[in-house]
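Table S2 (text version). Query chain:
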Amino acid sequence: MARRRIALGLLLLGLAAVLQGSWIFCKAAFAQVLLRRAWAEARAGAQARPWPWADTWPVARLLSPARGVDLIVLEGATGSSIAFGPGHIQGSAPPGAPGNVALAGHRDTHFRFLQQLQPGEALWLELPNGAVRRYEVQSESVVDERDTRLLEAPGSWLTLVTCYPFDAAIPGGPLRYVVRARPARG
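Corresponding structure-token output:
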């Protein structure tokens, strides 16, 4: 009888660990469904919040055709917003405006694909009005989290930022992986 209780306890403990470990992935996937609804409203001209208590709203749609990535971008890159999707870094150019549009996302969910991007690959940024800005990946680099030079660089850029290394056991850390893309010609 004691062995059965111990086995049941271990089984429940293992199930709890699996559920806890998959929570962030499930939350991120489900949030994108709600964000797509809010994006449809944003396309119709509303500043739609994906759920009533949200402190963010969709401002763009990021696509990587070669990687099959299609993400709704939220306003603000706070911890509470990027848990649900990539976020626009306040202080950078708004999506669609001239300048450096900077987006942040988690390395283990939405921005995991950044490690596979290659120079020359296309990235698209769709705006609520339906316009699409096309970019071409120029470079990838690893920088210290305090180094903001790439965010302040002059010119038109799409800058994508996530934590580094991608497979670190401990989240956060002092390094950031940065992908820079220029507007595509033609």
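Notes on Table S2: The first strand starts at residue 58 and ends at 64. The helical segments are 2-43, 79-82, 149-152.
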